[in-house]
């Protein structure tokens, strides 16, 4: 309840905040000369979208509701145990003689209630009832870190020829900054104990009782009995990992034990996810191969695990995941193309890939897999970033769909053609921001010649500036301050850019 109350209080407070600011880019009349202006002003406009703030608050509410459902489920389990205990005594008075009259009355009332029978995982995996520890890790090593942004799960099994786990862990951990190491958890089944005490790495292993009898599985889709057993166990491994990780972070990323990662992979994934509304996606794909680099929102893991448990013996994990999307958005009366378009709205692909498959010898005995992600070798043509909420527009003609909106959201680079006098780019911030630094990137590795030249950057402060600012920067006739300038012969140096909210 406290979480819900806090959410409502912040929501009301947020709705009372008004004011915004705009940045304008213009081109001079005598050359290809871009001019950037920043306008700050307040007003009584109520229709202001605080997308990132609302998204964060909504996620907190979802987590609070999720925890409430978990507590309710736990209480129902306790109630069921009471019923069983009373049923075993056959209503014997001797069994209740040590309880007070009020307690006896309460127990009888609880036992007499007959709620609807809600399906759960025990309907699909009844063998779990044979051992009360079937869903508790048999081995659990780590610091039990929770509250992180991202949880990465790596299922691993013994490979007869070569293990790639150590190489995978080194690639993932070495490319994390000290701050990022505090904001994530990597969960694996075995190996590498050197970073366990910091909380970054956790090792788990399910009990033997977690697995059903895998000897009598039906052969399907032309797969051998051994392959059916392998893919079925793999489905159960993924499910156990997800159940363990669901309470630890905001996002969960599925990885494999035979991959390498690109530099800055963590920040890239996190920032890309933060730019998207939670309702807009179910899966973010940071690799095109199999189940590698697939990101989910933690609250969605319960649905995914339930679906896997229902069909874990029928199909491999990537097929089941596709079926979940089909059930959610596909219309049986429409054709396959329509279905693919609908699924693509929930499955968002990030390019280039951040992970590469390096394993040659599969965990399935005798299987050689020469799988590589071709997108992994492609350069990252833009850097993912988080900008303050703003409305953007431009008079420049957009080329091949590389819009300014996507650029500002960190999804793509902006590409326009034929700049002329009077062209502009306009940024309207939802509320005033304090600009500490700015970054202006122009051109990329594939198109180094396509860049803005002969450009000035000018800002119009929201508040009256002090004497130091007036002395340092030249002021224009329309009250802007010129803070940056470059020409055709003197291209801009790449500067860092960050903003913070004004008090």
TrEMBL record:
Pathway: Protein modification; protein glycosylation. It catalyses: an N(4)-{beta-D-GlcNAc-(1->2)-alpha-D-Man-(1->3)-[beta-D-GlcNAc-(1->2)-alpha-D-Man-(1->6)]-beta-D-Man-(1->4)-beta-D-GlcNAc-(1->4)-[alpha-L-Fuc-(1->6)]-beta-D-GlcNAc}-L-asparaginyl-[protein] + UDP-N-acetyl-alpha-D-glucosamine = N(4)-{beta-D-GlcNAc-(1->2)-[beta-D-GlcNAc-(1->4)]-alpha-D-Man-(1->3)-[beta-D-GlcNAc-(1->2)-alpha-D-Man-(1->6)]-beta-D-Man-(1->4)-beta-D-GlcNAc-(1->4)-[alpha-L-Fuc-(1->6)]-beta-D-GlcNAc}-asparaginyl-[protein] + UDP + H(+); N(4)-{beta-D-GlcNAc-(1->2)-alpha-D-Man-(1->3)-[alpha-D-Man-(1->3)-{alpha-D-Man-(1->6)}-alpha-D-Man-(1->6)]-beta-D-Man-(1->4)-beta-D-GlcNAc-(1->4)-beta-D-GlcNAc}-asparaginyl-[protein] + UDP-N-acetyl-alpha-D-glucosamine = N(4)-{beta-D-GlcNAc-(1->2)-[beta-D-GlcNAc-(1->4)]-alpha-D-Man-(1->3)-[alpha-D-Man-(1->3)-{alpha-D-Man-(1->6)}-alpha-D-Man-(1->6)]-beta-D-Man-(1->4)-beta-D-GlcNAc-(1->4)-beta-D-GlcNAc}-asparaginyl-[protein] + UDP + H(+); N(4)-{beta-D-GlcNAc-(1->2)-alpha-D-Man-(1->3)-[beta-D-GlcNAc-(1->2)-alpha-D-Man-(1->6)]-beta-D-Man-(1->4)-beta-D-GlcNAc-(1->4)-beta-D-GlcNAc}-L-asparaginyl-[protein] + UDP-N-acetyl-alpha-D-glucosamine = N(4)-{beta-D-GlcNAc-(1->2)-[beta-D-GlcNAc-(1->4)]-alpha-D-Man-(1->3)-[beta-D-GlcNAc-(1->2)-alpha-D-Man-(1->6)]-beta-D-Man-(1->4)-beta-D-GlcNAc-(1->4)-beta-D-GlcNAc}-L-asparaginyl-[protein] + UDP + H(+); N(4)-{beta-D-GlcNAc-(1->2)-alpha-D-Man-(1->3)-beta-D-Man-(1->4)-beta-D-GlcNAc-(1->4)-beta-D-GlcNAc}-asparaginyl-[protein] + UDP-N-acetyl-alpha-D-glucosamine = N(4)-{beta-D-GlcNAc-(1->2)-[beta-D-GlcNAc-(1->4)]-alpha-D-Man-(1->3)-beta-D-Man-(1->4)-beta-D-GlcNAc-(1->4)-beta-D-GlcNAc}-asparaginyl-[protein] + UDP + H(+). It is found in: Golgi apparatus membrane; Secreted. GO terms for cellular component: endoplasmic reticulum; endoplasmic reticulum-Golgi intermediate compartment; extracellular region; Golgi membrane; Golgi stack. Keywords: Coiled coil, Glycoprotein, Glycosyltransferase, Golgi apparatus, Membrane, Metal-binding, Secreted, Signal, Signal-anchor, Transferase, Transmembrane, Transmembrane helix. Residues 117-376 form the MGAT4 conserved region domain. It is a single-pass type II membrane protein. One of its GO terms (molecular function) is metal ion binding. The keyword Transmembrane helix applies. GO terms for biological process: protein N-linked glycosylation. Residues 1-19 form the signal peptide. InterPro entries: Glyco_transf_54 (IPR006759), MGAT4 (IPR057279), MGAT4_A/B/C_C (IPR056576). It comes from the Eukaryota. It holds the Pfam family MGAT4A_C. Residues 390-486 form the MGAT4 A/B/C C-terminal domain. Glycosyltransferase that catalyze the transfer of GlcNAc from UDP-GlcNAc to the GlcNAcbeta1-2Manalpha1-3 arm of the core structure of N-linked glycans through a beta1-4 linkage and participates in the production of tri- and tetra-antennary N-linked sugar chains. Involved in glucose transport by mediating SLC2A2/GLUT2 glycosylation, thereby controlling cell-surface expression of SLC2A2 in pancreatic beta cells. Belongs to the glycosyltransferase 54 family. This is Alpha-1,3-mannosyl-glycoprotein 4-beta-N-acetylglucosaminyltransferase A. The lineage of its organism: Eukaryota, Metazoa, Chordata, Craniata, Vertebrata. The gene is mgat4a.
